[in-house]
Structures are given as C-alpha cells and as structure tokens.
Amino acid sequence: MDMKLSRRGFLKGAGAGVAGTTLGAFGFGDIETAYAAAIRPFKLANTVETRNTCTYCSVACGIILYSKGDLRKGEKAEITHIEGDADHPTNRGTLCPKGAALLDTVRSATRLKHPMLRRAGSDKFEQVTWDEALDKIARAMKDDRDANFIAKNKDGTTVNRWLTAGFLAASATTNETAFATYKVVRSTGILAFDNQARV
Ligand code: SF4
Fold it and tell me: What are the coiled-coil residue ranges (predicted)?
C-alpha cells in the first residue's frame, strides 16, 4: 500500500509549516525555506506493506514489513522497517524485544538464506538448490527409516517406532500447517519431534 501522507507526517509538516510561517512573518524568509528543507521525509512514505509472522517463538505475533523497491519491475526490494501489526489478534501491534529487533535479523551478515550442503570429505559448505536439498533429505530419511523402523516390540506388540531420526519444525506457522506437519511426522513413526520455540 502506498502511504502518501500519514497522520504523523501530516502533523509534523503542519507544525513545521506554522513555525516556518511565523519565522517568515518576522522577516526571516530564508530561514523559513531552510527550515522546510530540513524536515526529514516520513520514513514509511512510498513503502510497500507486507503482513507476516514473527519468526522467533510460538506466540507468532503479527508483523508488518515495510519495503522499498518493486520486484515486479525487476527492482531489488529492501525491507526498511518492521513493526507490530495493530490489527493482529495475537499481539495488537506490540512486540517483545526480540520481535522489535527483527530488522537486525533480516540484515544480519550471518543470516542463512539458501540451503547449504557440506559434501562427504569436504570441509566447506556450498549453496545448493532447494530441489537438491529436499531430494537429499528425502533419500536419507527413507534409507534410515527402512534400516531402523521398529514395527513390533519384543513382546510382539505393534509400536511402529522410528527412533533414529528426529524432526525440528517451526512454530511460526498457521494452525493448519502445524496440524499437517504433525500428521506427516507422526505417520513416519518419529517420536523425537519438537519445534524451535523451546530451543
Ligand atoms: S519473539 Fe516476541 S515478537 Fe516474536 S512471536 Fe515471540 S513474543 Fe512475539
């Protein structure tokens, strides 16, 4: 959404206008011009709003990302500001210190943006495609499950356990995604299942 003139920007401009006009009435025309030029433009003007969810914990607070640059025009979009979503029922616009510092997370030099793989025998991680990463994970899971799945315990009772693999999911999802994730993971027999909210 383009924000041409916010309430805050209007008040700031109106206040500056009154001050500048008053100076002008006293014969300080140049000062009026310089004062008006010194007003910083409202930082959210001409930004695009994108609603999202804080990535940190299972509270899953709603956030608004403000960005500049239109991807549809081939421009590089850059997030310039993040704040709590006042319309979100969970947090009503508030954020804890971790959520309030999300912009630093986005801009962190160590932020992981792509799947990385350290091949056998190598001492370096290299970037791979999502297709390669997912194929490799699926292959490893299938091989491990085939080798270690426990269908019955020593008493002959059906247990359907897979104890040699674990699954770490993310909490910043919808209820529906969490439900589907839970069903898929439990259907494999995995017992060690958690999410990052407890890490
Ligand atoms: S880390 Fe803070 S802002 Fe983020 S979801 Fe949790 S409580 Fe909300």
Answer: none
**102 CB near ligand 1 (under 6 Å):** no
Sheet holding 78-84, edge to edge: 48-53, 62-68, 78-84
* CB neighbourhood size of 164 (10 A): 13
Q: How many CB atoms lie within 10 A of CB 102?
A: 21
Is any atom of ligand 1 closer than 6 Å to the C-beta of 20? no
Q: Is 185 in the pocket of ligand 1 (CB under 6 A)?
A: no
Report which protein residue has its CA nearest ligand 1's atom 6: 57
Measured from the CB, is residue 54 less than 6 Å from ligand 1?
yes
Q: Report which protein residue has its CA nearest ligand 1's atom 3.
A: 99
Give me the phi and psi of 83, to 5 degrees please.
-145, 170
Query: CA 61 to CA 171: how far, in whole Å?
Result: 11
> What are the helix (H) ranges across the chain?
7-25, 29-37, 97-100, 102-107, 130-148, 175-188
**Predicted structure pTM score:** 0.62
What pLDDT, in 10s, does the model give residues 129-183? 999 999 999 999 999 999 999 999 999 999 999 999 999 988 777 788 889 999 9
Measure Cα distances from 33 to 46, 99, 158, 178 in Å.
24, 40, 83, 57
Q: Give the β-pairing of 158-169 and 126-127.
A: unpaired
